[in-house]
């Protein structure tokens, strides 16, 4: 049987090479991603910043093997991605919890599907429930939780599958400003406790500067084209009012003015 992952030279955790995506046919073709090269290092926190409709989610779906690129390839650990797999944990903007399952039931779903024994999967689920700060809420149902708490469950659920890579697609877009800041702080705390390669999509410049080791911006005018790359050399925890933080935020704002 053909392997879902084909061996490629190993350099980066994730490598997107010559990636492009168009939908539709010749009469009605929509170019969503222009030819793109993007490489992500192991344990890096990469932020992809771009306006609505710039192809961010499409890029993520291709990285996760949920969508086939029109041209180019994605490799993980040097192996070509040809379909979805356990290497990747996904957290979406919309809450995707099972409403009929408790917090514990949602988080232990992945380990259960992987065939872990009951006591083992309980242990794994409890570890991540504790990590995201939901100790005591194990038996609550999604409708009993706030938006921020639901996204914590989504993050715990993704981590419980032990993926090497976490893709977070505007996970805090639906939260109020204060909860969002709290969740950004939590995201960094969790990432520092359990290092993973993280790719995080947002349209919020402040959020990008707070979170990223590196920020790549997508051009809003040309479909899905990488515009700028910023190495964020600010110590953590970052301070939204720090002068260097504000300078970088302004620089990205200025350079994105034409495209955001
Ligand atoms: N399956 C599809 N068929 C046709 N067009 C699609 C499909 N998926 C996405 N698109 C189009 O691709 C473009 C980019 O969508 P995408 O969701 O990737 O952008 P985005 O940057 O994540 O947007 P947002 O921030 O608004 O979620 C949109 O114009 C969208 O309509």
Automatic annotation (TrEMBL):
InterPro entries according to UniProt: AAA+_ATPase (IPR003593), ABC_transporter-like_ATP-bd (IPR003439), ABC_transporter-like_CS (IPR017871), ABC_transporter_ATP-bind (IPR050166), P-loop_NTPase (IPR027417)
Stored Pfam families: ABC_tran (PF00005)
One term of GO molecular function: ATP hydrolysis activity
Keywords, comma-separated and alphabetical: ATP-binding, Nucleotide-binding, Transport
PROSITE patterns: ABC_TRANSPORTER_1, ABC_TRANSPORTER_2
Keyword Glycosyltransferase among record annotations: no
Start and end residues of each ABC transporter domain: 14-245
Domain of life of the organism encoding this protein: Bacteria
Identification of the protein by name: NitT/TauT family transport system ATP-binding protein
């Amino acid at each position: 049987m053909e392997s879902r992952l084909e061996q490629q030279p190993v350099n980066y955790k994730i490598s997107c090479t010559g990636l492009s995506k168009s939908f539709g046919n010749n009469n009605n073709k929509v170019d969503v991603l222009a030819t793109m090269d993007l490489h992500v290092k192991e344990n890096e926190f990469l932020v992809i910043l771009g306006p609505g409709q710039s192809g961010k989610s499409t890029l993520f779906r291709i990285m996760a093997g949920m969508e086939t690129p029109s041209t180019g390839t994605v490799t993980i650990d040097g192996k070509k991605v040809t379909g979805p797999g356990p290497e990747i944990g996904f957290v979406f903007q919309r809450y995707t919890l099972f409403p009929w399952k408790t917090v514990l039931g949602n988080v232990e779903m992945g380990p259960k599907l992987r065939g872990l024994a009951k006591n083992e999967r309980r242990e794994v689920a409890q570890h991540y429930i504790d990590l995201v700060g939901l100790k005591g809420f194990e038996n609550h149902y999604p409708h009993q939780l706030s938006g921020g708490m639901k996204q914590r469950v989504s993050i715990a659920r993704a981590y419980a599958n032990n993926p090497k890579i976490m893709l977070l697609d505007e996970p805090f877009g639906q939260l109020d400003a204060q909860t969002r800041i709290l969740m950004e702080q939590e995201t960094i705390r969790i990432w520092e406790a359990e290092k993973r390669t993280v790719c995080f999509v947002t349209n919020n410049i402040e959020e990008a500067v707070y979170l990223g080791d590196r920020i790549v911006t997508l051009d809003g005018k040309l479909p899905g084209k990488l515009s700028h790359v910023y190495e964020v050399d600010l110590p953590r925890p970052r301070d939204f009012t720090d002068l260097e933080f504000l300078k970088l935020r302004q620089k990205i704002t200025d350079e994105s003015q034409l495209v955001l």
